[in-house]
Design brief:
Blueprint lengths: L3 H25 L1 H30 L4 H17 L9 H11 L5 H15 L12 H36 L4 H15 L2 H15 L16 H39 L2 H8 L4 H12 L1 H25 L5 H11 L2 H29 L10
Length: 368
């Protein structure tokens, strides 16, 4: 019989056998070990997130079979002019659920889905449209990435430009007015702003009420670029107004904090020009908080684009996710959410790596 001391010693030996190579790896390659640890954490988080999504879909009332039967009954009732309720028996519904794999517990469904994705690299088919989930995501994700990346670039550029400028004008009337409008648009409901812009487009006719051209890019690439810019201007401007307020104020406050540091006083005492003090020294230290929050900004843009895509009929991943949730299409919901979550987690890991590149004081894995 194994004693408690022997079991404890064996456990400590096993832990040491695992931790010792990892400790050596961290000392020899701190940044590589950090990236490896973040990737492992991403995998664990995505696994738990997928399981939680299956659990939430299971808790939702009804399922996709009920909705399919209701839609079919409504269409038959409208065509025949009679009440067709009771046509489908419980055996037929149970058989249909068994064909879709919905008769198993959600944990079993999730393990089957993981096995299909990891082994066969197959995301399955949509339970509603019967189209491959990978095809549906590929056809929409490019549109969402283009929209959100353009918005992120504009917000980043103008946030730094205006943040540094208004930091140099701190306390003036221009700075007070800019702070007021930044707070106003930051607090203004995004959905209301999008609706107002759509009403503006409808009443004036200067812009389309939809955010995507009515012809494919392969038909006329050059004309598509100009038409896309015209269609996307109002929703992109609404996203820009909603995102620039908080980011610009963060950069402005960081610049003001840096301008009060002792090293800024030393630079000024050495006779260095004010322009170099702002742009070459204080500005560089404002990159750290922005890089840290850039992944959260990208995540907020993706979540905010859901409302944008619905209101302006933009064919993006957010609208696809909304339709999948409303129809309880489990395969499509899970693949969409896992992809966006992986993108956000990857962005957070990249932001941490960029911090080590931008700021030489940050070194992951090294003890002080």
């Amino acid at each position: 019989m194994i004693s408690a001391e022997s079991a404890s010693l064996a456990f400590r030996t096993a832990v040491g056998a695992v931790c010792t190579p990892w400790a050596l790896f961290r000392r020899k390659a701190p940044l590589a070990s950090f990236i490896t640890g973040r990737l492992i954490t991403m995998v664990v988080i995505l696994f738990m997130l997928g399981w939680a999504l299956f659990a939430l879909m299971e808790l939702a009332p009804g399922d996709i079979v009920d909705q399919m039967m209701q839609q079919q009954l409504m269409s038959q009732s409208e065509g025949a002019g009679t009440d067709m309720s009771g046509v489908f028996s419980e055996e037929q519904l149970a058989s249909l659920r068994a064909q879709m794999g919905l008769d198993k517990p959600f944990t079993v469904q999730y393990i089957r889905w993981l096995k299909r994705v990891l082994v066969h690299h197959d995301l399955g088919v949509s339970l509603i449209s019967k189209a491959p989930v990978s095809f549906l995501i590929k056809s929409r994700i490019v549109n969402s990435l283009v929209l959100n990346l353009i918005s992120l670039v504009f917000i980043t550029f103008f946030s730094f430009l205006l943040g540094v400028f208004f930091a140099s004008k701190a306390g003036t009337r221009v700075d007070i007015a800019a702070t007021f409008f930044a707070l106003f648009f930051h607090a203004f409901p995004g959905i209301l702003l999008l609706i107002l812009f759509q009403l503006l487009a409808s009443l004036t006719g200067l812009f389309p009420v939809t955010a995507y051209p009515d012809f494919p890019v392969t038909e006329a690439p050059v004309r598509f670029v100009f038409s896309y810019s015209h269609h996307i201007f109002l929703p992109l401007f609404a996203s820009f107004l909603g995102g620039i307020g908080g980011t610009m104020r963060m950069i402005r406050s960081t610049m003001l904090d840096q301008m009060g540091m002792p090293y800024i006083m030393a630079l000024r005492a050495r006779g260095i020009s004010e322009r170099r003090v702002y742009l070459c020294h204080a500005f560089r230290n404002t990159l750290n908080p922005y890089i840290t929050g850039s992944a959260n900004l990208l995540a907020s843009l993706f979540s905010g684009s859901l409302v944008l895509e619905i209101i302006f009929a933009y064919p993006g991943i957010g609208r696809l996710m909304y339709d999948a949730v409303m129809q309880q299409d489990v395969n499509l919901v899970l693949a969409n959410n896992m992809f966006i979550s992986a993108l956000v987690l990857f962005g957070m890991a990249v932001s941490d790596i960029l911090l080590a590149i931008v700021d030489p004081r940050i070194r992951y894995g090294k003890e002080s």
